[in-house]
Amino acid sequence: MTLSRRDLLLSTAGLAAGAALGPFAGGPPALAQAAPKYEPEKGATLRLLRWAPFVKGEEDAWLANTKKFTEATGVEVRIDKESWEDIRPKAAVAANVGSGPDIVWVWFDDPFQYPDKLMDVSELANYLGGKYGGWYPGPESYTRKDGKFIALPLAAIGNALCYRESWVKEAGFSEFPKDTKGFLELCKALKAKGHPAGFAHGKAVGDGNNYAHWLLWSHGGRTVDEKGKVAINSPETIAALKYARELYQTFIPGTESWLDVNNNRAFLAGEISLTANGVSLYYSAKNDPKLADLAKDIRTTQLPVGPVGKPVELHQTTSAAIFKYTKYPKAALAYLQFMYEKPQMDAWLLGASAYCCQTLKAFAGNPVWTSDPNHAPYAKASETLRPNGYAGPLGPASAAVMADYVLVDMFAEAATGQRSPEEAAKRAEQRISRAYRG
After folding, report:
1. Angle (deg, nearest 10), helices 406-416 and 396-403
2. Do residues 171 and 271 share a domain?
3. Residues of the chain with confidence (pLDDT) below 70
């Protein structure tokens, strides 16, 4: 979509060259709520800290939208990138010292680690929710505390199985198994054919956490109950750990040290037959002429259903938060409002090629979701995700458990034989108890 400068001036909520700007383009609000108007402070500049992209088109679209905002308002926006693993400590340090980026893209329930350091963005969040069909409950739960928004849900990065169709058929399976029992048999058959599987058991923010939570939930386990009482040491968790141990025998060596880039590299190098990843893995092959044959062989599907009897998955969830220490709060609000409005959000989702799933329901109709069959498992990530603090409320305790990789460590210990399933569950119970006592 090409917008003229006049269109931009009409679509931003700040001031351009000192003139008040009207509501964004994109249709009338769903509710009778006027667009908030944030006038950027004189001489305002902003700094955004985001995670390093896995899809170049996603970053390109965000940068293009940012350029439009600067052209419309005169507010320069510096965008810094950090690895996925480094975002969490960098944001925590900035919150504690009161200096650094104005806006940060955070993971999961990280905002609950320093809620008093974040701006209340409820006015903007309520306006966007009212205009664009409401927020999906899962992503929204990561940004609300005591009835207020302390961040804006930005995206759920869908997690699905990526596999080599020809190798699955070579292993004797005409269809991909839909349950965990059949999935284990497939992985055993693939290993026998010289095509091992590979899932991250290391401290991978996305893939390690997504895999560990799926293992736990698919067998009926949970970290805490509805009241926040620690519930990890259960027969269901033990069953999940025993399953993980069996599955690990079908893996390529070394997955206990994998971060979010490692399974991508192994899959693209032909070293593994399947893994769980975002759609970026598919596009890494599709966009490389040398990997054209591999790209044609890639298929995607949801993770198999376990004994619990229904799909239960964690998807990487990211939110945009503004630190209270920013010198330019109105400029920061104007920037986020601009980026969430329809012309910009649609362009970003399209540029992300199904890597980022919308957090506002009205954007579910974006054509990206029907443009390729391999996008289908990622299309409902925001709708289906289960928050990592399940079954208790999100808060500082759930954020601490996630930040400390308790579940990732528990499964890695049991899968590799470092501890028995019972020992691994007991250690996780101790670690979770410390977080929830605090």
Report:
1. 40
2. yes
3. 1-32, 438
